[in-house]
Specification:
The chain has 9 helices and 29 strands. The chain is of the alpha+beta class and 463 residues long. It has 3 domains: 132 residues, Thrombin, subunit H (Beta Barrel); 124 residues, no CATH class; 163 residues, no CATH class. A hairpin with a 2-residue loop joins β8 and β9. α5 packs antiparallel against α6. The protein is elongated and about 90 Å long. The termini are far apart.
Amino acid sequence: MQSPSAQADVQQFSLPAESNSRTGLPFGSSLERIETPLVFSGFQPAAIQQFSNQLQAYGFVAAQGGTAAARPEDAHLVPGDMAGMVLVQGDASINSACTVTAVQADRVYLCGHPLMNLGNVAIPMARSRVVTTLSSNLASTKIVNVGGAIGTITGDHLTAVTGKLGAPPAMIPLDLTLLVPGDDSSKGAVREKKLHFELINHPKFTPLLVAITTFNGLTQNSLYGEGTTLHLSGEIRLQGHAPVQIENTFAPGDTLSPDGLPIAATMQNVFTRLFVNTFEPAKVDRIALRVESVPGRKSFIIESAWLEKGEAAPGETLRVRVLLRPYRGAARVEETTVRVPEQVARGTMLRILVSDADLLNRASRGFAFAGPGSGPTSLDQLIALLNRERRNDRLYVGLFVPAPTLLWDDKELPNIPFSQINVVDGRPTPGSVQVLRESLASEASIPLGGPVSGVISLNLQIR
């Protein structure tokens, strides 16, 4: 079943009334563009189904196939042979294949139609072979094995797909490690499974391919099981830039949605933000992900919070206690401290925010990705903002003072005088500037080992 957005994009061509009468088709019948088959090898249908709407929106339909060892004669193409794009390879693969139309020296012409109509590209080209054809009057299906890489797909246009024989372009390595407690977990024993994939580097498809590959590699792993808390960590290395650090924890939910799906969504979101940046192409060198599975559902709700006293002097340190309610567990109290800044004037009312990571991110950074003019102005600044986002498995306590904070690109300028704000506002091109009415003076966090949700706001009077 196609999603509404996918149906809206389907091109239809009406048939003449004479054709309808000759063929016996109903009045108003039309022709639709044939969907592009993607050959999945090493993927379970249940994993592909989670992304079916996105695949259909691109005009793809999933097909089962396999991979074969490279042969010396793979690059010896003649018209009528099969070749196609390699989107993912390694412990699982995603490919597309179609018929070779012509070969001129090292130039290859395929399909006679577009695969995705991407224009000029640099995607590995591989030899394919049809194992058998399942005939049908409606739509025949070819079972295809994909062989070795033989060159580069250089163009994907309306009339043909073009390629060049030779060395294939580099792909993005993705290493995924899953760790689960061993049979004797009391002694710290763990079982480990490592998977390796390689993906194309393309702004439109890499985020989706990362999500599908990560989700399938995780949920179809022999060590994986539903009903566990998953801790994701890792990094994305980019050419010429600092790595993007990945760390979050995901607890199982009460719906029928697979527990590993939020991990795939997180990775797709991060890559989308990297690839849609308007500053420069994000050239990814390597992706390394590590998922640790902990039995049970470890999540917490903030129920209450209180200060040891409602008044404090400048420079004083106060204890903050928080009542947490674990999932199906007894309530527990966590304690941390906050320090009142020395320069706070007497009589000032401060605000202490006890919250999860998302709410403190919003309170201290505003809406950094809300729209034009409110975000970073370079890829380095975007990476810095991504790395500064707080982790969802920690309880945060932030102390806010009633002094404006200036957010300029990826920099935070707390307690800034109004005169400086006016100077910045008067610049012809001030860049990405936001002003928050409060400044985060201090912050403390407590790791809990599971996602935290909720917020409590407390007032503190300075005497």
